[in-house]
Amino acid sequence: MMTTRGFLQVLVFGLVFTMFTIDQTWGEPDCYREKALVREHCMESITRKGDYVRPSEACCHMVDQSDMTCICRNITLEDEKEISVAKFLWVAINCEKPVESGTECGSKYLYDAFL
């Protein structure tokens, strides 16, 4: 029969293994696929290059189906090489799906409903 100590070791190992195999942080929804789809459909509006272009109907349709606040929190420095966080926020507003006030968006923006 397994001792209590041996049982606890197996239990802890199983718990640690489970924690490392989960692909999302506890309490935070996974929106990486949504981020990729919004980026694909809205690139003309959120690109760092050029002036802001109002979002297309296809872009707004994708925005409507996405959690824009989650996407905003998950914009990385790598993403910011190609997309403008400010334009992303404008797309969310123009598509009537604004990011929640107080959201940390990208590497340096704190969205505070100033737009």
Automatic annotation (TrEMBL):
<keyword id="KW-0732">Signal</keyword>
<feature type="domain" description="Bifunctional inhibitor/plant lipid transfer protein/seed storage helical">
    <location>
        <begin position="21"/>
        <end position="105"/>
    </location>
</feature>
<feature type="signal peptide">
    <location>
        <begin position="1"/>
        <end position="27"/>
    </location>
</feature>
<dbReference type="Pfam" id="PF14368">
    <property type="entry name" value="LTP_2"/>
</dbReference>
<protein>
    <recommendedName>
        <fullName>Bifunctional inhibitor/plant lipid transfer protein/seed storage helical domain-containing protein</fullName>
    </recommendedName>
</protein>
<dbReference type="InterPro" id="IPR016140">
    <property type="entry name" value="Bifunc_inhib/LTP/seed_store"/>
</dbReference>
<dbReference type="InterPro" id="IPR036312">
    <property type="entry name" value="Bifun_inhib/LTP/seed_sf"/>
</dbReference>
